[in-house]
Write a structure and sequence with these properties.
With about 190 residues, the protein is an alpha+beta fold. A three-stranded antiparallel beta sheet has the order 1-4-5. Helices cover about 60% and strands about 15% of the residues.
Amino acid sequence: MEYKDSRAAEEEAEQTAAAEDAQTDLPDAAEENAAEAPKEEDPLEKLKKEYSELDDRYKRLAAEFDNYRKRTQREKDLIYPDAVANTVKGFLELADGLERALEAPCADPEFKKGMEMTARKLFEQFERLKVEAIGLPGETFDPRYHNAVMHVEDEENEANTIVEVFQKGYKIGEHVLRYAMVKVAN
């Protein structure tokens, strides 16, 4: 029996040793699991990271909005002159008609005065919109603004001088609305 008791005592000792080893292994296993598991981030670091991301998004959005504002302003600046030019082009025939009416003889001085006032108002609006007449007699011929429909030998005027204007031209800045139709001296 002693053999069995000694055998039981050995088994018991082995179990106790295994239990002790298991207990000493547990902290090591816990340490290994802790090392493998991501460490919990410091709340301050987490907030700093979140702030940095939000700040970056804000700066990008502000820059995008600024670019949008500049782009729309450029588009507006490009559209406005074209819109004015297209509108004024519609009134050029009216201006021609008023000028012809003022040049024609008229028996009624009140009617002529009314026509002059109407023409003056129209040309004041042209000035306000920076519309300039081009192609006046005595000017030097410039193919960028004038369309020479006739040439004449004229000793009284220098070469390339506009002698007569058949139809006045108009421009806004460097943008020609209508070329002047002129007679040029050779």
